[in-house]
Write a structure and sequence with these properties.
- The longest helix has about 30 residues, at about 230-265.
- This protein is an alpha/beta fold.
- Helix 1 packs antiparallel against helix 8 (about 230-265) and helix 2 (about 30-40) packs parallel to helix 8 (about 230-265).
- It has a 7-stranded mixed β-sheet with strand order 1-9-8-5-4-2-3, with helices on both faces. A 4-stranded antiparallel β-sheet has the order 10-11-13-12.
- It has helices at about 5-20, 30-40, 55-65, 80-90, 105-110, 130-140, 195-205, 230-265, 290-300, 320, 355-360, 375-385, and strands at about 45-50, 70-75, 90-95, 115-120, 145-150, 155-160, 160, 170-175, 185-190, 270, 280-285, 305, 360-365.
- The protein has a domain at about 5-240: Type I PLP-dependent aspartate aminotransferase-like (Major domain) (Aspartate Aminotransferase, domain 2, 3-Layer(aba) Sandwich), CATH 3.40.640.10.
Length: about 375
């Protein structure tokens, strides 16, 4: 979270004074307004605000009918929640390489497609846009679905379209560490009416047909699901954050462009699938070797990160996945399901060497939209030094 202030306090107080935190009500309707405001800002037909980005991914996969017997391709470099969402619906995550842009590699993705593949999950990690043209081409060629994980890329875009709205469905996250935040939360985005209906039913099967008229125009029937329902207090804070989103991104992009323009003759940056749509939360420097990357971090006084060291963002540290423990009860574990017996993968630590190499040769510098000119000049000076 980058910016928060009096407006969020007033929004929370408004809900507290109304004394109704439940999503469905005849009063403030903060959740309903938040969803409409997301739809307008992101240019999509439907948005469902829920408890987390992972909840949105699971709801999207469920709405697409993905489950036991199906494979979903995920990148080797993403937070563990991406792969865990696939397991949550009973499907098997197939792990593909990430490329020089730090995002899912379309070439390796195509190599991993099998007769069991049902979907691709491009992840716009660190706000870096994926090559969505390539994935849309693959989806059309092989009759696959696309679920965009835009949880680290709230408001980013690819060729003028907001991330999360290009595939069949997309997920955003609003937890503490995202571009905008309501403490904890997420949203599912889609332009397809049937997916919206199914996701709405699944994400709140305890209430969606029993409170208000949420299913009045539905063609889909009620079925069993979970409870990822959000509340009025979170939504009220989120609405203020949504209003801040474009300003935050504009300032982040200004900071990043200034640094890159001033240092482009001194260092190499990772390539981008769309630098204009990049969220600009992260400056990523590329070195020829892991040793050079380490040496750089040791010489500068900036807060730096080498992504190979970021734990559960790297497939080999996804312990439940690598050890094939997809659920506590064995009958609910996708790795033990009869429907998946022909597609149990041979995960091993070195199965994505390209990704590990790239991660070891990259250095991240975190950016902030409120960096002063002095802060920016210091980063430039340190990099050039």
């Amino acid at each position: 979270m980058y910016r928060i202030g009096q407006e969020e306090k007033e929004a929370a107080a408004r809900v507290i004074d109304a004394k109704n935190f439940f999503k469905v009500n005849d009063g403030l309707k903060e959740v309903e307004h938040a969803e409409k405001e997301i739809e307008e800002k992101f240019g999509c037909r439907h948005a469902i605000v829920m408890t987390s980005g992972k909840a949105a991914l699971i709801s999207a996969l469920t709405a697409l009918g993905i489950g036991p017997g199906d494979e979903v391709i995920v990148p080797a470099y993403t937070y563990i929640a991406t792969a865990m969402a696939v397991l949550a619906v009973g499907a098997i995550p197939v792990i593909a390489e990430s490329d020089e842009t730090m995002t899912l590699d379309p070439v390796d993705t195509e190599k991993k497609i099998s007769k069991h593949t049902k979907a691709i999950m491009p992840v716009h990690i660190q706000g870096f846009p994926c090559n969505m043209d390539a994935f849309c081409t693959l989806a059309e060629k092989y009759n696959l679905k696309i679920v965009e994980d835009a949880c680290q890329a709230d408001g980013g875009s690819y060729k003028g379209k907001r991330l999360g709205t290009i595939g069949d469905a997309g997920a955003l996250s609003f937890n503490q560490y995202k571009v905008i935040s309501c403490g904890e939360g997420g949203a599912l985005l889609t332009n397809e009416d049937i997916l919206f209906q199914r996701a709405l039913i699944y994400h709140d099967s305890s209430a969606v047909s029993f409170f208000g008229n949420q299913m009045d125009s539905f063609s889909e029937s009620m079925f069993g699901g979970v409870e990822y329902r959000t509340n009025e207090l979170n939504a009220a804070v989120l609405r203020v954050q949504i209003s801040r989103l474009d300003g935050i991104l504009a300032d982040l992009r200004r900071v990043k462009k200034t640094i890159m323009d001033s240092c482009k003759d001194a260092v190499s940056f990772i390539p981008s699938n769309d630098i204009e749509g990049d969220c600009a939360t992260t400056l990523a420097l590329r070195f020829d070797s892991a040793a050079e990357a380490v040496a750089f971090t040791e010489k500068v006084t900036l807060g730096t990160t080498i992504p190979i060291n970021t734990g559960k963002h790297i497939y080999k540290h996804w312990t439940p996945v690598m050890e094939k423990r997809g659920a506590f009860h064995p009958l609910m574990d996708p790795f033990k399901m009869e429907a998946n017996k022909e597609i149990i993968p041979d995960y091993h630590e070195n199965m994505c060497p390209k990704t590990l190499d790239i991660l070891s040769r990259t250095v991240y510098i975190g950016l902030n939209p409120d960096m002063s000119e002095g802060d920016i000049e210091n980063i430039i000076r340190e990099i050039r030094k």
